[in-house]
Design brief:
Number of helices: 13
Low-confidence stretches: none
Radius of gyration: 21 Å
CATH architecture of the largest domain: 4-Layer Sandwich
Largest sheet: 8 strands, mixed
CATH class of the largest domain: Alpha Beta
Mean pLDDT: 92
Number of strands: 16
Structural class: alpha/beta
Number of domains: 2
Length: about 375
């Protein structure tokens, strides 16, 4: 069987007219050539479908939304299923989640990784294709989209829980794929933590691991005979500025037979005519080889990660309240107000809970800078 997996999809902004005019051929005509070859095609829905004046949640970063036309377009493109574990799925709260699920059901698009509560969001997805059972587990790093027992949202990254899910899936399915949404935005390498975690998923029994989120493609490796893709890049995601890293990415066609093989399908998106244009198969070969060489070498990967952290946001310390011990004692007694504004509190929440952000905080702590 052939499984096509694509990255982040955000159907909004300057492509709205094309969607409204049902000009799907312009946007996805070339992509459909590839989905037609697949037995099952999966994309990551990076924004909830919102109808009317739904209220956005309080969070760091933008609250993304799209409308029904974007779902109709991706259905036309030949995609069968949406992953919902990402950092924007809950941007419009329970209402946005429920409406998204209703619209996906309307167009016959299956989904997993998100739901009306944590129990639903964390369910493993099973699909029978050509007489074989495929299990897919979808999760994301902790930001503002996470489901709970009382609220809708996405399935959180929790290696212990994913271990048990993989082990159970191995007893019910012929093959297991894990799809994760996480990593450092605009950086083309996984962190050592990501590499360790995704290899752990393979050790637990996963046959393929795929990651997206960073808004740029990363490299891949074959670990114990199983492919791990550390970043697909944006699939179709609007940006007001032209940026090669943002615009280029790849889909991956997983072929499962006696052995597992794959094909990298490079493309450029968000181009002048608002389409996803396929590129020659060798387009990324040199860059991917460079990334792959770093990924397979633990020492080099750590060195590159340290360099990235050292030049990343040096204002991390400003997120934490800058008061002395005396002022802290007064504050605890109620005589001194908090200096943290609501926005700062949200940032602190994000940097403590999100695995990739916390990696940065821990690195800065280890350097004695916090």
């Amino acid at each position: 069987m052939k499984i096509l997996i694509a990255g982040d999809y955000r159907p909004d902004n300057r492509v709205t007219d094309l969607f409204n005019n049902k000009d799907f051929e312009t946007i996805f005509g070339e992509v459909k050539q590839k989905t037609d070859l697949a037995d099952y095609s999966i994309f990551n829905l990076e924004s909830p479908v919102v109808v009317g004046e739904a209220k956005p949640i309080a969070k760091c970063g933008p609250n993304l939304r799209c409308d029904e036309n974007g779902i109709e377009a991706i259905k036309w493109a030949g995609f069968d299923c949406a992953t919902l574990a990402n950092n924007h799925f809950r941007d419009y709260g329970d209402e946005g989640v429920e409406n998204t699920i209703n619209i996906l059901n309307k167009y016959g698009i299956e989904y997993f990784g998100g739901g009306i509560n944590l129990e639903e969001a964390s369910k493993t997805f099973y699909k029978t294709i050509d007489g074989q059972i495929l299990a897919i587990i979808n999760c994301c790093e902790h930001e503002f989209s996470i489901a709970s027992d009382k609220c809708a949202g996405s399935n959180p990254l929790n290696p212990i829980q994913q271990y048990y899910a993989i082990r159970e899936a191995k007893t019910k399915a012929d093959y297991v794929i894990v799809i994760v949404h996480g990593g450092h935005e605009h950086w083309q390498l996984p962190s050592p933590r990501m590499k360790e975690t995704y290899r752990f998923f393979v050790d637990a029994g996963a046959d393929v691991v795929v990651n997206h989120h960073q808004h740029c493609y990363s490299g891949y490796e074959v670990y114990n005979g199983k492919p791990i893709f550390y970043g697909l890049g944006n699939f179709f995601y609007y940006s007001s500025t032209s940026n090669q890293l943002w615009e280029e990415g790849f889909m991956v066609m997983i072929s499962i037979d006696a052995e597992i093989s794959f094909e990298i399908i490079p493309y450029k998106q968000n181009a002048e005519n608002c389409c996803v244009c396929l590129l020659p198969n060798h387009q990324f070969d040199t860059k991917l080889e460079e990334l792959n060489e770093i990924i397979k070498d633990d020492t080099r990967l750590k060195e590159e990660t340290d360099k990235y952290y050292s030049r990343s946001n040096k204002l991390i310390g400003s997120f934490f309240e800058p008061i002395n011990v005396f002022a802290r004692k007064l504050q605890l007694k109620g005589f001194f107000p908090s200096l943290l504004q609501n926005k700062q509190k949200l940032f602190i929440n994000d940097y403590i809970n999100c695995e990739s952000h916390r990696d940065k905080v821990l690195w800065w702590t280890q350097q004695g800078m916090l």
